[in-house]
Every structure is written in C-alpha cells, then in structure tokens.
Amino acid sequence: MNISAVLLAGGQSRRMGRDKATILFRGKPLWQIQLDLLHKLQPAEIFVSARTDPAWRPSNVMFVPDEAPLRGPLSGLTATLARIRSSHLLVLAIDMPSMDEDHLRYLCDKIEPGCGVLPMTGNWAEPLAAIYPVEARVNFVNALSGADFSMRTLTNQLVKMGRLRVIQVSEEDERFYRNLNEPDDLDDRLGSLIA
Fold first, then answer.
1. Are 101 and 37 in contact (CB under 8 A)?
2. Which residues, given as ranges, of the chain have pLDDT below 70?
3. Which residue of 14, 122, 147, 186 sits 20 to 30 Å from the alpha carbon of 1, by its own alpha carbon?
4. Is residue 191 part of a domain?
5. Considering only CA atoms, which of 111, 123, 121 is closest in space to residue 164?
6. What is the pLDDT of residues 8-29, one digit of tens each?
7. Are residues 151 and 136 in contact, defined by beta-carbon separation less than 8 angstroms?
8. Rounded distance, CA 134 to CA 138, Å?
9. CB-CB contact of 47 with 98 (8 Å)
C-alpha cells in the first residue's frame, strides 16, 4: 500500500487532565492500541506527531515534531506531510481507540491519485481520521502561515479543490470515531482509567 500513517499525539489533554497516550483502555495504553492498529495496515512508514518525542515511541516508528507555530493538529500534519515518501497520509488521533482495521482499510480503498478521503459522521467532518494526498501539503503550509488554523476551514477548502472526497460514515460505523476527551468518557462501556 503506497500510504504513510501518522499517529497524532500532540494534544495537551487539558480536559482529560493527563496525557491521553498513556491512559489504559481495555488494559492497554492508547498509544499501543493505535500503533498496533496502524501496523496491521502495513503502511510504507509510520510516524508519531507530537510536541516532543514521547518516551513510549517504539524505535521502528519515526518522530515528527510539530511545525511551528504550534497550532494543534494543523502543525503536526504540516510537518508530517513534508516527510512522507508515499502518495497519501493516513491520520489517526490518539484518542479514537474504537477505530477498526476493516473500516480504515475501507477508507484506504477510496483514495485516488491526488485525492484523499474525509469521513463525515452526520454533518461533522472527521479530519483526524482522514487520508490526505501529498499534494495537500501546500494547503497545510498556507493555512499554518495564515490567520485561520481551523481544520474545518482547511478540509472544506480541500474538498472544494478536489483534494479530498467526502465519505459519509454509516450510523453503525460512527462508533469508530468516538473519542476520549474527559475522564467521564472512560466508563464501563468503553474501558477504564487506570492510574
């Protein structure tokens, strides 16, 4: 598969109150769950995007520091798109531990030359579980040097340009996109927070 993958792990986790990457979910830290999932897809290369190189990063996964100025996912994706050696970049947020291998493969099957995919759950875009073509890098660089750092604004622009194709997620598959933002999100239905 001519695709690279990046695990976004650079958030400050203010609402969670601690680093999400090391939170245990069903007995495993989130970073391990997400990297195991990405490895199953056998991408050409795997990156971890964060502000600083995390101590948990395996040696076979490359670290990409966020591009300055620090503007959340926009900074991490701009830096990673500059490093990939493939045609597309699959993005996965650290806090989506319910994501599914088959679903990601389904998204990968929808990419085309110069065009990635943007999943939509209802009317909500999911830019942190999307696939971007390398050609979108210039748009990321321009957004990072501009005044609007919204991923929503950027992805809307990429859709209009034909660089992203919207994929409507079925109601049944929306569960894959549930993210963990607060301690209350870690309940008996999803897992447990173990200090």
1. yes
2. 1, 10-18, 67, 69, 181-195
3. 122
4. no
5. 111
6. 996 555 544 457 788 888 889 9
7. no
8. 9
9. no
> Which residues constitute the domain of residue 97?
3-185
Question: Residues 157-160: contacts with CB within 8 Å, 24+ apart?
Answer: 158/116, 158/118, 158/132, 159/118
CB atoms within 10 A of CB 175: 14
CATH number assigned to the domain comprising residue 88: 3.90.550.10
At position 59, the amino acid (one-letter code) is S
* pTM, 2 dp: 0.89
**pLDDT (tens digit, 9 = 90+) per residue, 159-181?**
999 999 999 999 999 999 998 75
21 in a structural domain: yes
C-alpha closest to that of 114 among 165, 181, 179: 165
Look up residue 34 and give its two tokens. Answer: 């997400």
